[in-house]
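hiii so my PI (J.) wants the whole complex modelled not just the main chain, which honestly fair. so below is everything: two entries, each one labled with what it is. i double checked the lines twice but i was tired so who knows lol
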Amino acid sequence: MLLQTAVVAASHPLANSAAQYVWLLPLLPLLGFLINGWLSIAGAPLGPADPNMVHPAEHDTHGEAALVSHAEDHGAVGDDHHAVKRHRFAGIVSIVGPGVLVLAFLLAASIFRAMLGVDMSHPFIQTYFSWMPAGDLKVDAAFQLDQLSMVMVLVITGVGALIHIFSIGYMQDDPGYPRYFAYLNLFVFFMLVLVLGASYPVLFVGWEGVGLCSYLLIGFWFSDKANADAGKKAFIVNRIGDFGFLVAMFLLFANLGVLDFAGVNAQAVNLPAGGPLVTTICLFLFLGCAGKSAQIPLYVWLPDAMAGPTPVSALIHAATMVTAGVYLVARSSVLFSLAPAASLTVALVGAVTAIFAATIGLKQWDIKKVLAYSTVSQLGYMFIGVGVGAYTAGVFHLVTHAFFKALLFLGAGSVIYSMHAAYHHTGSHEDAQDMRNMGGLRKYMPVTWVLMWIATLAIAGIPPFSGFFSKDEILGAAFARAHGSPMSEATWLGIPGGVILYLVYFLGLAAAFLTAIYMTRMMLYTFHGPNRSGAEEEKHLREAPWVMTGPLVVLGVLSAFGGWLNFPPLIALGRPERLASWLAPVVADASTRLSGSAEAVGTSTEAMLIGLAVLIAVGGIAYAFTRLKPESLVPKRESPEETGFEKVLVEKYYVDEAYDRAIVTPTYEVSKNFLWRFIDNGLIDGFFVNGIAKLTRGFGWLGSRLQTGSVGIYAWVLVAGVLAVLGAFTRR
Amino acid sequence: MLAESLALSAVLFVIGVIGVLTRRNAIIIFMCIELMLNAVNLTFVALSRFYGVAGQVFVVFVMTVAAAEAAVGLAIIISLFRHKQTVNIQDINLLRG
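here's the output for the full assembly
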């Protein structure tokens, strides 16, 4: 792999440290993918898809025969009584799958330690080989290690390892167990390529790769058409965003001639600041981010992506992949800081998405859908952060969100697992994900209850939990820059930037209020009040095994104390702004360019902002506690239909239906009637293909008329031909 | 002298061509083809007076080929007659595609 090392890398202070094994980081999950994928293929003919083929002795060697349930299984609603058999390679897969992630995390931690000790003013770039030498375009397969990618690598491998371990329990009885881990490992490989790539094309490889794995895992239970459709929807919506990303890369290459981050950052400052070119590039980049990170108008795929297994939702659709857009904006901070109008767009789209998704989250009944819209909303917060140029705040919220949202999803996974096991026991076909069928679970799952409350308080922004610090920093930055910064003096479609930023701030504040409400609502309906699952089912509700609860505890600790990463100077519980000073070499210049001297608001203003944020969060929780009565809820099958605006919220503002009418159906109709019937069948098949065949046959028929078989006529024609040739020669 | 010889051979050749085109009896057409071959032979001989003996050598070749052709051609005509009971080429269109 180390074919050639760039000369610059050799002189870097990290040259002879653990960082030189950075290529091993993505290679470990790739190895896991190959092993698990091979086991999946090798185990297929004898796999538990046909339980009769599994030898009884084989089953016993893998132990744990007492497991009473199988994993959540949307795909086989009518098939609830299939034999519970572990996959014959489940034992080795359980070691390899999470094992490679743990190893990768340990390697990442040792690289992090090495980075702590040296001066990292320049990124550590390792070039392995020349990937695309085509004329002026030279793209190397190179990895870049800097502070930003290190943060992402630690989150991906750390949270990823925990989710892999959780999956051992959650997916234990799934017939596709090795396939699941193979996809999950492949995802981590591509995600690490994404954050480690030293140029836009290498990043794009990871970007597309994680999209592929997302597609594969959303449609993991593909035998149910709805799941397969959800996978396709995610893939196709993401392609729209990827088109924007590609155009941005073309523009970068056409105008700067380079595509690696170091080169772009060095040359971008020569572009006219705020000019149309750099604004266009940034807007196209942001289109890619909106697709990958589920922002308006391309957010519609993420709620549907909940069709995949719950740990997948936690890892891909909450903690890592969907934050790739935030990473991309932070990575392109130099470009975005040169385009205040584009940055304002990012912030505004983020704020509108945050409030829009939060309102939908208020009325969802599926526990995973609540979390999905919450994720969309929180991603909106991250885009407010990176949009207003507070790149540290955006990345900070990315990290804390990875902790508490992974915890929430895995907790929801535990709940679904437990509910499903209970329904499996009684042979009921009720919806194991609908909160109307839950209630009172605190009695049966105390550990999950406590941990999910920690995550809820964190996401709602209650101090001292992690989400409070990151969310407050984002809102504070938006408020601070609304007055007296270069950004506030820029205009966006004729509106002064300051007005936009105040709007962004208030939308963010309102979304924080709604976040507190819908999260408390979810907790109340799931864990409090009476149990609504049914008298028989109630006896079988119990806490998930420790292999699942253990990762939850770790994530609970991280959610509670994640704020230590970046204390505001005002609350001096430790060294303040640790993350900010860590990320400073990457984003500080860009951040200052947008904020100007407006970075610091007065201490009293800041205290007021913090107080307001806390008040809003506490108010939201109190409102939910006083207004929502879990006692009066009835199970799903007895629930009445919603009416009025509630119905609009339950139906998600009918956005899917609107897209269907406005885009999908017209596209389909035009494709069917014009492209297929007219262009393809009529023009290409009818005119070009069959038409030319008919023409040829016509000429052939004409020629056949000459063949009379009469020698006399042949002789006449022959003489005429000779005369013609002679005539042609003599005329000369 | 040469001009007269060439003119005679041209006349003979044209007579042959007209015979091939207009007559219907295969035997006569065959004879007309022989006439055309011999018209060419006459040209060769006439021109060999000026351009060396090669023309006369060609004549020998042409006569040899003509003899072989006569053997094969007459054999074809005989078998055709046996098959169709006629040598009128208007009644024969076996070459029709």
